[in-house]
Amino acid sequence: MNIDIQGAEQQPQNQALPFVVRVEVVTSATYTDYVQLIQNGKKVSPSSKQAYLVYSDSASNIYQISGATIELRYNIAEIDPCGEAIVTVGIVYNRRIEADFDLGQLR
Q: What is the reported pTM?
């Protein structure tokens, strides 16, 4: 599940790869606390969080922050690989976006 080809040669043989959720938010702030993975009705806690800024070049030679890519990594042992998972993104003004995934179909 979620095999990382580029890092495979560096990945120790006896260590499981993480389950990764990556969301791109189009805004000027980073919302790592608002992205959640829910499985079996419970929030799964990530083992690590990372945010990368996304830059826009709408004007020639002028770059500005247009959003962020948020990456959450999860211990694979805490994820049901055949179950359903919901990724939620909470945005300002209490709006929430959800995407449902059948992990068994994604394998």
A: 0.68
Q: What is the mean pLDDT for each group of 10 consecutive residues in the chain (107 residues)? A: 53 73 68 78 91 77 79 90 87 73 81
Q: In this structure, are residues 84 and 36 in contact, taking their beta carbons and an 8 Å threshold? A: no
Is 72 exposed, middle or buried, given 0-12, 13-18 or 19+ CB atoms closer than 10 A? buried
Q: Domain coordinates of the chain in residue numbers?
A: 19-106
Element (H, E) at 72: strand 62-74
Is the separation of the CB atoms in 39 and 86 below 8 Å? Answer: yes
What's the alpha-carbon Rg for the chain, to the nearest Å?
16
Mark residue 43 as left, alpha or beta (left: phi above 0; alpha: psi -120 to 50; beta: remaining).
beta
Q: Residues 51, 70: contact at Cβ < 8 Å?
A: yes
Domain 19-106 has CATH 3.30.1380: no
